[in-house]
Structure formats: C-alpha cells, structure tokens
Design goal:
The chain has about 230 residues and is of the alpha/beta class. It has one domain (about 30-225): Rossmann fold (3-Layer(aba) Sandwich), CATH 3.40.50.720. Helices cover about 30% and strands about 15% of the residues. It has five helices and eight strands. The protein has helices spanning about 45-55, 110-115, 115-140, 175-195, 220-225, and strands at about 1-5, 10, 35-40, 60-65, 85, 100-105, 140-145, 200-205. The strands form two sheets. A six-stranded parallel β-sheet has the order 5-4-3-6-7-8, sandwiched between helices. A two-stranded antiparallel ribbon has the order 1-2. β7 (about 140-145), α4 (about 175-195) and β8 (about 200-205) form a beta-alpha-beta unit. α3 runs parallel beside α4 (about 175-195). It starts with a strand and ends with a helix. About 30% of the residues are buried.
C-alpha cells in the first residue's frame, strides 16, 4: 500500500501477515493420528476424508455400508498407503484402534430414510452407541454430525443452539429427526458419565460436488427442477 508523506515522498507499507487460525494448533491438524470416518463414502464424508488426507502424517479409515455412499467418491484414495476402506454397517460393533472418530454414518436424504425408516433410526441410535463405545474403549475424541432437523418445525427464527425445537415424534420423518436427537443425548450422556471428549455439528442444508441430484433435499430438488 502506497502513502504520500507531508514532503511529497511516497512510502510503501505492507500489510501485517494474517494471524494464524487457532484451528492450526487444534487436534484436527495434528499428525500421526489414526482417524475413523463413518459414512466417509457419502457426500459430506468424502470431502472430510479429502481434508484429513491433506495431512501426510494421518491415517484415515473409512467405514461405510454404501447404503447411500459410493466408492466413486473415494476413488482417488483407494490403494493409498495411509487410507483404508472398510465395508461395515455401524449398527454392528467395530473393533479398531483410532485416535479420532468422525461419525457421519446415516441416510440424510428424505427419499432413503422414508424408504427404510427402521434402518435409519437404528443407524442413528445403535450406530452412535457403538461409536461411543469404541471412543470410550480407546480414549478417542468423537464428533457427531447432527442436523437442523432436531429443531423440527421451529417457532423461533433463527434458531439458537439452546432452542429445544418444536418436534413431531411420530411423523414419517421422525426416524431421522428423533434419531439424531437421541444420538445427541447419547453423546452428552457418555460425556457426563464416562468423560468422553465429544463434539456435535448440526449441519443445515448443504450442497456441492458429489451431491446426489435426486436425493430429495431442498437444494438438489431446486437445481433438478431448474435444469429439467
């Protein structure tokens, strides 16, 4: 940036370097970690895997039953020495040694969870129990991807994290909504009772590469209808 002084001379000043993000010192960026990503072959999960694999000291293990995910989303990592892909349903226990768990496994599309509501709620409840049991056994930190659907049909806009929601426990979408609410409850119960280090991310409408255009969500429906 150039500035003119009182005597007419020009001086060039440079901007100070940006302050490094505190995330750079967080566990997310620490190396030599074995990281489990459930549902890692899905839309959001595969992008998370890409980010985790940027750290050349990390080993990443993906567990996915491919109910909604696809191997194509992980094709560039298959065969990589720091990457492992396991065909596994999280409703069954998983015996593995890891430092971190990112628990994304669950059908998030209305089309899929209305087609198989029992599997959806089992994935949310039993799958989360299994991942929390694993975190307790190995001392891993666990992050659960939850959803804005925990607020139901909210009466408050925008919703604060402390808002409890306005929910329907018996509707056709409840297998997903209530399943995520139970999963969040389990996370906090394991934290309070067993000292498990937890994180919960409530994800709202998300779109981007690898998104299934026919998955029945708001953004994909809008784009599909516009294109057709």
């Amino acid at each position: 940036m150039a500035k003119e002084s009182a005597n007419g001379e020009h001086h060039t000043t440079s901007k100070p370097p940006p302050t490094p993000s505190p995330l750079r010192n967080s566990k997310f960026f620490q190396g030599n970690m074995r990281i489990l990503v459930t549902g890692g072959a899905g839309f959001i999960g595969s992008h998370l895997v890409d980010k985790l694999m940027e750290n050349e000291k990390n080993e990443v293990i993906v567990a996915d039953n491919f109910f909604t995910g696809s191997k194509d989303n992980l094709r560039k990592w298959i065969g990589h020495p720091r990457f492992e892909l396991i065909r596994h349903d999280v409703t069954e226990p998983l015996l593995i040694e890891v430092d971190q768990i990112y628990h994304l496994a669950c059908p998030a599309s209305p089309i899929f969870y209305k087609h198989n509501p029992v599997k959806t709620i089992k994935t949310n409840v039993i799958g989360t129990l299994n991942m929390l049991g694993l975190a307790k056994r190995v001392g891993a930190r666990i992050l659960l991807t939850s959803t804005s659907e925990v607020y139901g049909d909210p009466l408050e806009h925008p919703q604060k994290e402390e808002y409890w929601g306005n929910v329907n426990p018996i509707g056709v979408r409840s297998c997903y909504d209530e399943g995520k609410r139970v999963a969040e409850t389990l996370m906090f119960d394991y934290h309070r009772q067993h000292g498990i280090e937890i994180r919960i991310a409530r994800i709202f409408n998300t779109y981007g590469p690898r998104m299934n255009i026919d998955d029945g969500r708001v953004v994909s429906n809008f784009i599909a209808q516009a294109l057709r």
